[in-house]
Structure formats: structure tokens, C-alpha cells
């Protein structure tokens, strides 16, 4: 464009200061260089505010030093003659093995949150279309921005698996020697934005219009005008030290937003990841040859769009969770996970076993493995308010099994069947679970004298005052003989325990350790709706919060649910032996119990325990 042929008046800074001293939104246009051909970018200047969006990032970036490209843009003759070459340069995949410039580092790359003019953002599920690379190339956008050596925006994609790529070099998330994101070796490609389209496999259809699941702006309006951007990297669980800190993060639009019968999944995910890291290995294990092709995509959605935002911003919008639900529904044997009522164990089986291939938490002496343990007990009419400890020991005793090792996590399902039948009207979740006597070949104490036990008598379960549970089945040789001199126990059959050799030598000079696990969450159900009580810290006095993903609702058919977190100051007292006894005796009828106490004692569906010692090694 020739400046002399245009009716343009270029003003300088002194003119602006004189005429608009109080204006703050003036874009200062610098005097153009004295040359015949002027780039439009020169006229617009390079001092645009960042809130002007992607165009500002392009205008503000340093001028390219590619002389051939400059000629093709500024010279109409050359542009026509070389337009095919220019187009090829813009749309062809970017070779990441260019020689690195030692003077360029990550600060020279201008990062964007989304591709301008599209609804594709970091975390979007995309396919690389019309690439000439390979067929069916799918992945997740991990980086968007402007590289100092390119005339266009660059998009970094972590592909689902390692395809047989043509004419393209992959990387581990580095471009020209600069790390832009982290992924496995060979899992990253860099392409121009016109290569990226929504992944057709995960598109919702509404009427005759296809709407991507990742339509961020639309979803923000649809689910309450609350932003929920992906959060990359590793984010630690929320660290809460007292009740005041907990109350500061509680309130409406806190936690995971429910949508289309998602409460079973919302309550479980909130319990698993908000305040503890016991499940974090799921978020970071690298894929191997036995994993499904969608492993990384599912892991990225779980980590970057659900767990990390939950821990950083204490909120996850429903559309983010729906992306995970769509994966689960399509990739596992459990159907209806996007809309139907389900149970937490169905979700856990789908995610942990079938998709993420997590090593089972429980290894049983029977040779079986499991992610959770269902309590199977016969109702004891003498127990009106049993503890989880009592039911846990009774179940293991009646099944005649033990755990081969201390698990990092123990998920226990209460003795109830369906959504209505409960074996006990009230159950007290034990704050600490003693698992010493259900670990195979673990040193045990004699229930009478406290010395190292050498024998176990299963028939003595619940018959001795020294120990009413499994603890009362362990004896040293001397106490075994004495206890079984009584006529009622004379015909009992005992078996010798396998005692570690080191403990036999040191038994008289040391206190035998007991093995405990700590309660950190209770998932409850009432009338098909799941909620959760979650411990925000460690120790008996740590505060607890109550979480409901559908605590309130805005609008009707086209409305949205409002999640809520509430601190429950009284809960540590309710869980104590004395506090539980008092509230149980004072409130004989369930309806007179405090609201949260009723949900905790009467509606418990699943209790989650963790071993802080073992989880350090996983």
C-alpha cells in the first residue's frame, strides 16, 4: 500500500497528548518508515493491549527475519508467483528437528489459551485433518502460541498413540530445543492451526447442529457463567490446616458441578482427589504397550480438566466432567454413564480397571484382587449402632480370608443392597481402622498377655472378653493352652501362625506394631442421590466438609445445577466414640438427628481409608 495514495493522517505522540490527555484507550500509531511498500502491521503498530486477543499477540511479536516470506507478502507479483509455496509453508506440519537457536528460550514464545477465531483451547480433543501424515490422527492440544521463527500460530498436540507418521518428526513436547509442554517421547507433534478440527468421535448433536464438547464460551453460559480453564502440570491436593481455612474455600459453586445424573461420579471424584494424593498415581503413570490407544487422552482430561482445576480453583464445570463421562461410556463395558443413574463401584470399575489399568488396591489371600471390599455379614441383633471396624472384622472372619499386604487405599462398601435396603439403620464410620489382624503373616499380639502370638483360633472370635473381634483369636502357646482348658473351648481347633523370624528373636525386647488406616471420606446415598463427607487434612481433629454436586439449581429444563461445599464443625466429635454414643442415645428416631449426622450415620454407602505410610511408596 502506498501511503501517498491514501487519505490517511498519521498523528504522533505529541498530537495525542495535546488533544486527548484524559483518554486511556488510544492506540498510538507510530510514523511509518519511508518506503514505497508499507506493511499493514507497520501502520497498526506493535503496542496493542493484551486484552485485544490473538491479533494483538501477532502484531506485538518481533518482526520475522524471513526475507523470502517478506517479499512474497509485500510484492504482489512475487506473491502471485509464489503463493503455492507460501500456502505449503503455512499448512504443512512443522518439523521439530530444526537446528535450535541458543539465543531463543521459552520466553520468546508467546503462549495463547485458544486458537483465535475458533473454540479450540488447550485441552481440546482434536484430529489432525488433511495432513498427509497418516490416517486417523487424534490427540489433545497441549500448547498454543507464536514461535519466533514462524509467520503463523503454532499448535502443539499430544497424540493418542504413536502412529506411522510420514514426513514429520515427533518430540517429547520440545520445539527447536525449547520445551513447550511435557509428554512421552514421540508423542508430540506441532502443526499450524488450520490442521486442527474437533475430534469427530466426541461431538454432541443438538437438532441439526453439531456442537463440540469443548465449546468453552458456550458452556460457560450454559453452566452458570463460571470459567473453568484446564490447568496443566502437577497440582498438589488442597492443604487445609484448620476449620477457618476450610470455611474460606466453601460455599456455592464449589467442588464439582453435577449434570444429568452425575452425582455418583461427582461425589466419588471429589472424595478421591480434593484433599488427598492416595490416587495420584492414576494421573501420572505413563502409557505402555498394553494400554488402550485413548489412555493419554483420558488421563489428560482427568488430570488437566478435572483434578487440577478442582485443586487450584476449587471448581470443576459440568462440561469438563462430561468429557470424561463420554470416554468412559464409549471405552468401557458400562453403558449409560453419560445420562443414567449409576453406582460409584460401576464408575470405579470402568475407570480404574478397564481404562486406566490401575493395579488393584486389595490383594486377598484367596488369590483374588479387588479395588474395593464389600462387607458381607449376618445381622447381629445385639448391635444397634455397629462400627465399620466391627463389621469389617466380622466380614473377614466369616469369609476366612486375609489381605496379603497393607493397601495404600481401602474402599469399603457398607452392608446394604440396592438403594433402599439397609442391614443396619445406623453405622458409625470408624475414624481409624485397625487392620493388624487381617494382614496375612503379620506379627500379632496374644489377646491375653500381649506377647507375640503364635496361634490363631477362629472359633474364639467374639467369645473372650480380652478381645471381641479378630484380636481375640490370637494366642501365644501358654495362653492358648490356658484359654482352651475351659469346657466350652476344649474342642476348638487352632492353627499355627507364620511368624517372621526377626520378630521371634526380638519379640521380648520390642512392642509389636499395630497397623492402622485413616478414614478420609464417606460417600452417602439417599433416594438415589450421592453426596460425600470428606476430611480436609490428617489426624483426629482435622476439619470435615460436606459436598453436594447438585445442592441447588438455577432454571428448569435448560438450567444448571449449583454445587456446594459446607464445613461441618461437629463431625469430628460425632465420629468419636463418646460423641457418637451421646448423639445416638439422645436421638432415638432418625428424623430428630441433626441433618448432617443423619446423612453420615444413616446413609453411609462407601467408606474410604488410606495408609499414609504405604501411599508414599506408590
Automatic annotation (TrEMBL):
GO biological process terms, semicolon-separated: protein deubiquitination; proteolysis
Predominant subcellular localization, coarse grouping: cytoplasm
Subcellular location(s) per record: Cytoplasm, Cytoskeleton, Microtubule organizing center, Centrosome; Cytoplasm, Perinuclear region
Entry keyword set: Cytoplasm, Hydrolase, Metal-binding, Phosphoprotein, Protease, Thiol protease, Ubl conjugation pathway, Zinc
InterPro entries registered for this protein in UniProt: CAP-Gly_dom_sf, CAP-Gly_domain, Papain-like_cys_pep_sf, Peptidase_C19_UCH, USP
Record keyword Signal present: no
Domain CAP-Gly: start-end pairs: 145-192
Gene3D superfamilies: CAP Gly-rich-like domain, Cysteine proteinases
An MF annotation (GO) of this entry: cysteine-type deubiquitinase activity
A Gene Ontology cellular-component term: perinuclear region of cytoplasm
UniProt-listed Enzyme Commission number(s): 3.4.19.12
Name of the top EC class for this enzyme: hydrolase
Similarity comment: Belongs to the peptidase C19 family.
Protein known as: ubiquitinyl hydrolase 1
Gene: Dgri\GH13356
